């Protein structure tokens, strides 16, 4: 596994050389865009909206569109002026309780690996975080952008969880949090009963992303056998379908039906 970032963690006056690795394994399958009739790959070109001509890369600049429609051209020197000072340090500036961070702020996990000479200082930070029950709030620079994150203990390792800045989040609209709705005790009790019936201990091993495997199965099947449009039209789907209650149905009846399905 290739390191995404090399630097160090600044913990008071302690400096811990580390490497960062991606903490996720994307399930995306690479697909190209092709023309249907002959499978010719599609090439995207940069076309000027005014004259319809293709624009070569060396004639392209980045521009900020103003309200009057004109553009302010931004070049490399402008980006350098605005960019934060480049450092290779993850600076811990506060310690907080993890439960104080709403889940909407959590964004991306990284695995923190210590350099050979930093194993003891890494172990010290890990033990201190675990003993305190807190996480280290930190800032770091990656790919010219400043990020906010927390350093936390997960099993025997330290993870860096990138979190969002407050101004990156949208406030939910009023329609997302209706306040003029009356809920009866019976409805609430039945909803709580459903939650109780479906409550389990979280076990991530139980949950699999089946879409990638299913799509690859379809791709292999189509690759090994010539499928005709006639066969596709004649294909049928088997299996039982479960009738779901609609929004027009009575809420109590929906709750009763839900409990009945769970019990069976």
SSE topology sketch:
Layout: E1 5-11, E2 14-22, E3 62-65, E4 71-74, H1 76-82, E5 89-96, E6 106-114, H2 119-132, E7 135-142, E8 145-154, E9 157-163, H3 185-197, H4 210-224, H5 229-234, H6 251-263
Helix pairs in contact: 3-6
List its traits.
alpha+beta; 26% helix; two-stranded antiparallel sheet; seven-stranded mixed β-barrel
Structure overview:
The two termini are about 45 Å apart. The protein has a seven-stranded mixed beta barrel with strand order 1-2-6-9-8-7-5. Strands 3-4 form a two-stranded antiparallel ribbon. Residues about 230-240 have low confidence and may be disordered. It contains six helices and nine strands, in the order E-E-E-E-H-E-E-H-E-E-E-H-H-H-H. It has helices at about 75-80, 120-130, 185-195, 210-225, 230-235, 250-264, and strands at about 5-10, 15-20, 60-65, 70-75, 90-95, 105-115, 135-140, 145-155, 155-165. Among the domains are: about 5-25 and about 85-165, Ku70, Chain: A, Domain 2, CATH 2.40.290; about 175-200 and about 245-264, no CATH class. By secondary structure, the chain is α+β, with helices and mostly antiparallel strands. It is extended, with a radius of gyration of 27 Å. The longest helix is centred in the C-terminal third of the chain and has 15 residues, at about 210-225. Helix 3 packs parallel to helix 6 (about 250-264).
Helix content: 25-40%
Q: State the CATH topology of the domain at 5-25 and 83-167.
A: Ku70, Chain: A, Domain 2
Number of helices: 6
Strand content: 25-35%
Structural class: alpha+beta
Tally the beta strands.
Answer: 9
Largest pleated sheet: 7 strands, mixed, barrel
Taking all Cα atoms into account, the compactness measure Rg is 27 Å
Q: What's the rounded overall pLDDT mean?
A: 85
Residue runs with pLDDT of under 50 for 5 or more positions: 228-242
Helix/strand order, N-terminal first: EEEEHEEHEEEHHHH
Query: In CATH, what is the class of the domain at 5-25 and 83-167?
Result: Mainly Beta
CATH architecture of the domain at 5-25 and 83-167: Beta Barrel
